[in-house]
Amino acid sequence: AVAKIFTYKAKDRGGHVLTGSILADNQAAVAAFVRAKGYFVMKITEDQGESTIQVFLDRFTPVKTKDLAVFCRQFATMIDAGMPLISSLSVLVEQTSNPNLKRSLQAVYKQVQEGQMLARAMEDHKHVFPTIMIKMIGAGEVGGVLDDVLNRLSVQLEKEYKLNAKVKSAMTYPAVVVVMMIMAVTAILVFVLPTFVGMFQGMNMQLPLPTRILLAASDFIRTNALILITVLLAAGFGLKLALKQRWMKVLMDNFILLVPIFGDLWRKVSIARFSRMLSTLLRGGVAITTALDVVKQTMTDSNMHKAITVAQTSVQEGVGLAAPLAASPIFLPMVVQMVAIGEETGELDKMLEKVADFYESDVDDIVSRLSSMLEPILIGVLGIVVGGMIAAIMLPMFDIMTAVPK
User: What would the 3-class secondary structure string for 362-402 be?
Assistant: First the structure.
């Protein structure tokens, strides 16, 4: 017989409900497997597998940082209450609503049941569980402080979620206004202006320069719409490919740092993430060289990546962390001083946590100021652009009205 995947539901001697999946020939073999473990069989069903459509839809439901934070918080609570690891994972599988996280947890649960270490099982699902989580859980398992590590992870992920939310809120409003402006300009050029072309042609007069420019733009867009769309898509795809090149990434990262306000925001967000993550890893019992490597893998800024690479070499040589950070253009003097104090006092994790708290608060203030400052500016620009186009359309009519004898 061809082996199939079966999902079972059972109870252990403590009354805890357990779920799992197993490859077996039939339901009888699954029942025998469950009873051999000392569990009471409640339900066995054959896994029909997911449809192609469901798999496709699952790709659009990624595991969010908030989902992982809730998972860690619930996991820590159960472990702290003395619930066995297997039972805790079983409950988490039942409670998780995100399909990608649920599927990965089911696989992890099965591997742990078979004797695999939790961190090792999670390594097979790196697309769901971030490296920082895997490394810290591994350290927690070895040190016997899994509940403490999970609590620290939940705080880290919650902070990361809030920081990302702040940055998104800073970028969303300008993006929405710019998109609205482009849509308004395109609508006027493509749909509104053509209705005036016939009237303008019958005027037998020299049209004002702004009107002529708008008519030429409208005609060009309507005539070459397909070509323009193709060029824009190709340019977007080309830019995406270019940003994957190291030299282009370095160029863009350095350029962002020079942009007023946004450069300062980018720098402080990077510092806050670096400090929070490194502090969490060090407090979780991860060695500093390993912690730096994990942080480097999660950083996208090339300046930060370079600084951490130099710092790794410096730490391995016994020089310390403060000196290489001071040489980097992205780290501010206050950060370097706090790191130096932390290294001298042996409380680097606490100092990094203070740095993260300070810059997260600073990012919040910058976002608030940015929102209040950009709102009137962007609305003003939108009004000028759209109003200017309407004025350019109306100018010939005003000329006609002034030319009519009274």
Answer: HHHHHHHHHHHHHHHHHHHHHHHHHHHHHHHHHHHHHHHHH
Of 318, 383, 394, 368, whose CA–CA distance to 184 is shortest?
Answer: 383
Residue 9 host element (H or E): strand 4-11
**DSSP strand E in 25-107: where?**
40-46
* pLDDT > 70? residue 52: no
pLDDT band at 405 (very low <50, low <70, confident <90, very high): low
Q: What share of the chain is helix, strand, coil (3-state, %, to 5)?
A: 75, 5, 20
The rounded distance, in Å, linking the Cα atoms of 34 and 40 is: 7
pLDDT confidence of 56, banded at 50, 70, 90?
low
pLDDT of 234 > 90? The answer is yes
CA 367 to chain centroid: 18
For the whole model, what pTM was predicted?
A: 0.68
197, pLDDT greater than 90:
no
256 in Cβ contact with 263 (< 8 Å): yes
Distance of CA 170 to the CA centre of its chain: 15
- DSSP class of residue 216 equals H
State mean pLDDT over 196-208: 73
Long-range contacts of 1-5 (CB under 8 A, 24+ apart): 1/25, 1/26, 4/46, 4/47, 5/46, 5/47, 5/49
Compute the distance between CA of residue 200 and CA of residue 396 in angstroms, rounded to an integer: 8
* Sheet with 40-46: strands ordered across: 17-24, 4-11, 40-46
Between strands 40-46 and 17-24, the pairing is unpaired
Strand ranges inside 253-340, DSSP E: none
Q: Distance between CA 317 and CA 313 in Å, rounded?
A: 6
| Residue where the block lists tokens 């370079």 | 306
Distance separating the N- and C-terminal Cα atoms of the chain: 100
Q: How confident is the model at residue 58 (pLDDT cuts 50, 70, 90)?
A: low
Nearest 5°: phi and psi at 285?
A: 90, 10
DSSP 3-state of 140: helix
114 SS3 class: coil
Nearest Cα residue to 10 out of 21, 23, 25, 24: 21
Q: How far apart are alpha carbons 146 and 119 in whole angstroms? A: 11
Residue 236 has pLDDT above 80, yes or no: yes
